[in-house]
Write a structure and sequence with these properties.
Radius of gyration: 35 Å
Low-confidence stretches: 529-533, 537-576
Strand content: 5-15%
Distance between the termini: 46 Å
Structural class: alpha/beta
Strand order of the largest sheet: 1-2-4-5-6-7-8-9
Number of helices: 21
Length: 576
């Protein structure tokens, strides 16, 4: 079949079965690696924008590499699983497993490619592996149940192959190996922890949503349209990035230059690499900050937008800080922003923080609605605006935060450890966690007790009304123990039945052989299964060549028409 590209069942005596067994193990290893790789790219979708941004910093070109890699990985995963299923079918029907040479090449390439990719990416993007490790807190209990189920279902085939091993020592070795793997799986939940293993009463309130640069999945980041879209999707806080133009006007831009999110290559082709803070506000207003979103479709959402919406996006300009504050005031939402120091030589290089505070105070936005993160001139800022929420991007203990008069901790979700949220809450420290839009990660933070979650997809987290899953710890223990017991019973039954079948088959074959020898020694004319043939075969013999025969020499040639369960043809000599 497709596995070995042999369209008729053949047995080549020159083929070495042990070689094919090695290739089968290599294929299993490749399936394991590509399965891990597939899992990795599925769970790191939350950080796909960070991954694309990292490549953009290296190459200067924005391409959605995440979806390209995910598509390639999905293809490889489908191919590997397809081969594994074909091999399992061969084994179930006692068909020799011969992997075609083309499949062997592809399996080796797949194994080497996955291994090299894991090693390389671990060096270049370690944050992705941290996220994958964190995901086990949500997927661990279900991966455990799935692994137990798969190995239990396959135990019938495994027991069948084990029963065919002729050496007792090898039988004991493979049996102990299999039981060791299953035993490890059975006790794995002792090492699985998840904040979602709690009772209903222990579930904290749903975290509030903060729009990261607005709603960048539905509108260009850091534009007025993006902020309003975030508010329309129930964001209680909006986050942005603030820089100062050369003439002292605060504007909204995350990148150091203007290449990624504007059409600067068309308007100022000789200044595409210049720092954004070296432009004056009039020059910045000439740039379009929306067309790039339609052209590059960073989150794959443009296709779902209406024509009217696309027209609005195409007319967006670089965001203005004062306008941003007025949007927040009008909609009664909180704001949090990163304020960047201008480059050296800039007129406001020294006093940029104190200068920007003037715009906050003039906006008349309640100070309690503003989270101030910039540490430069903090004492001056605190004296001039004592009711601002002072926050930090650095992790401190609650005691140190109180010494610094800081009340907000704004950290990446990887920086929070188990128990941090409850510890900060007890000390009246608010937590802001960024950047989250995967439902599983939002659920994990919800169960952990996060206060506010900053998201690229406020439209997604808005619809999460309950954690993806939450289970009473007692119910989970019952589920875990019940699954293990049922699995153990099924495996024991499979091994006992397969061993008995093997013993019965061996006795039947031996009985048939003894009967055959007896018939040869005492032929009977009434026995249609034994016929004396002349030394020179007739045409009648040629017609029977395709049938299953067993030849026995007794003086002349005897032919036995026997439908035995033995595959190979044997020649038995009996002396009369």
């Amino acid at each position: 079949g497709l596995y070995g590209c042999r369209w008729r069942q053949q047995v080549d005596p020159n083929e070495k079965r042990w070689v094919e067994r090695i290739w089968f193990m290599v294929m299993l290893l490749a399936v394991g690696f590509v399965s891990f790789w597939m899992y990795f790219w599925l769970v790191v979708w939350n950080d796909s924008d960070d991954f694309n941004w990292w490549i953009y910093q290296q190459t200067g070109k924005w391409v959605n590499w995440y979806w390209i890699i995910l598509a390639a990985t999905s293809t490889a995963f489908g191919y590997a699983v397809f081969l594994l299923l074909l091999a399992a079918i061969h084994v179930c029907f006692d068909i020799p497993v011969y992997l075609h040479w083309l499949h062997k090449i592809l399996v080796v390439l797949l194994l080497c490619g996955c291994t090299a990719s894991v090693v390389l990416l671990q060096q270049l993007w370690l944050d992705g592996f941290r996220l994958a490790w964190l995901s086990l807190q949500m997927t661990g209990p279900w991966l455990h149940l799935g692994a137990v189920g798969v190995l239990t279902v396959s135990s019938w085939v495994i027991a069948g192959q084990w029963a065919q091993i002729r050496t007792l020592a090898l039988q004991i070795f493979w049996l102990l190996l299999y039981l060791g793997v299953m035993g490890g799986l059975y006790v794995a939940p002792l090492f699985i922890t998840s904040p979602c293993l709690i009772t209903v009463d222990q579930l904290p309130p749903k975290p509030q949503a903060s729009g990261h640069r607005g709603a960048p999945m539905l509108a260009p980041e850091n534009t007025a349209l993006s902020f309003q879209t975030a508010i329309d999707n129930n964001a209680s806080m909006i986050e942005t990035d603030v820089q100062l133009s050369i003439d002292g006007q605060p504007f909204l831009m995350h990148d150091a230059d203007l290449r990624r999110t504007t059409n600067i290559a068309e308007v100022f082709p000789n200044r595409i690499n210049d720092n954004a803070a070296t432009f004056n506000i009039s020059e910045l207003k000439r740039l379009n900050a929306g067309k790039w979103f339609l052209q590059r479709d960073p989150f794959g959402t443009v296709g779902s937008l209406s024509a009217r919406r696309r027209a609005q996006i195409a007319n967006q300009s670089i965001g203005n800080f004062s306008e941003f504050l007025q949007i927040a005031k009008k909609n009664n939402v909180r704001v949090i922003f990163d304020l960047y120091r201008p480059p050296r030589g800039h007129p406001y290089y020294q006093n940029f923080a104190n200068y920007t505070l003037n715009f906050v105070l003039r906006s008349e936005l309640p100070q309690s609605s503003v989270v101030w993160l910039q540490s430069a001139d903090r004492l001056t800022v605190m004296r001039r605006a004592p009711f601002l929420k002072q926050g930090t991007d650095n992790k401190y203990s609650p005691a140190n935060l109180k010494k610094l008069a800081l009340t907000v901790e704004n950290l990446d979700y990887r920086q929070y450890n188990k128990g941090d949220y409850s510890l900060y809450s007890k000390n009246n420290i608010s937590t802001v966690t960024y950047i989250v839009h995967s439902s599983w990660l939002f659920s994990l933070l919800w169960c952990s007790g996060a206060d506010t979650v900053t998201s690229n997809g406020v439209n997604l987290v808005k619809n999460i009304n309950n954690p993806v899953w939450r289970m009473n710890p007692f119910h989970y223990r019952v589920l875990w123990i019940t699954t293990d017991v049922l699995s153990g019973v099924c495996i024991i039954v499979c091994f006992l039945v397969q061993r008995r079948r093997k013993a019965c088959r061996s006795r039947n074959v031996e009985s048939v052989r003894l009967e055959t020898i007896e018939e040869v020694a005492h032929p009977s004319q009434d026995n249609p299964r034994v016929r004396l043939l002349p030394d020179n075969p007739t045409d009648e013999m040629e017609e029977d060549e395709d049938r299953t025969l067993q030849s026995v020499s007794v003086g002349g040639t005897l032919e036995f028409d026997m439908d035995l369960p033995v595959v190979q043809h044997e020649e038995v000599a009996v002396e009369m």
